[in-house]
Here is the input.
Amino acid sequence: MLLWNTAALLLGVALDALLGDPQGWPHLVIFFGKVISFWEKRLYPMEDKRLGGTILVVLTMACCTLIPAAVLALAWQISRWLYLLLGGVLCWQCVAAKSLRDESDLVRVPLEAGDLSKAREMVGRIVGRDTDALDAAGVTRAAVETVAENTSDGVIAPLFYMAIGGPVLGCLYKSVNTMDSMIGYKNDRYMDFGRRAALLDDVVNYVPARLAALELIAAAFLCGMDGKNAWRIWRRDRRNHASPNSAQTESAVAGALGLRLAGDAIYFGKLHKKPYIGDALREIEPEDIRRAHKLMFTATGIMVVLAVILRMLVYLF
Here is the structure.
């Protein structure tokens, strides 16, 4: 099964590279979102919001792990090739490299055409901050930050967990990540109810975020970018974020590109003071979005190689 899971991981990466996230196709994250919404409707009315949120986390993880595990177990009994196909599809839908590239490219294209209004609209689809007042540099910066941050939780982290435990552990990780994106907010509704989901997301991303940062630094060297500065800025600024994980990859990308990222941002009409990450060695430009893509894909390749090596070592020894 270890060899078949390795093949499923490689198939999933290949499918992501070829297909990305086609609109209108069924997707694992949509199913996970429905599971989370199902339990939220039933548990949010509880008087003890933290307890309700904790129960939601446990039930969501159980549903989103046991159902894929049962399907794969049945497929294993029927045919190894069916197992490979279904496992590959699950791995594909846990990884989001191509869709991250495609979504951020929708920001770059209008920026290069001088259509700031369209660029603001497109970047608003992939960031949580208010975008109406952003200038071209602010829009570009937001897109680069999104690519940098999501290189970890959208690409490297699921690959990390699939390398350890195959498609099922990948699904478990993706369920935690989806919970955080749906209920892990510090607002009136979710401050208590979503606290456990947000904390768990920080925990499961702790190791992958740091691994992703190191892979991005290695990618900077391989891509002919400033690897030494990526290492320097990562060492200096990797904690410059309220999240224990977000600045890990942002600092590596900022250093590799010679940019200053992060800083103050407006969310829901309220200014949030945030430290800067990196040094402004030059002005940011739309092409930096593509440079961030190059770093992301190279880091992904490094992670895939490491995953295969890890699984082969476990198989041999």
Summary: The CA atoms of residues 156 and 303 lie 7 Å apart.
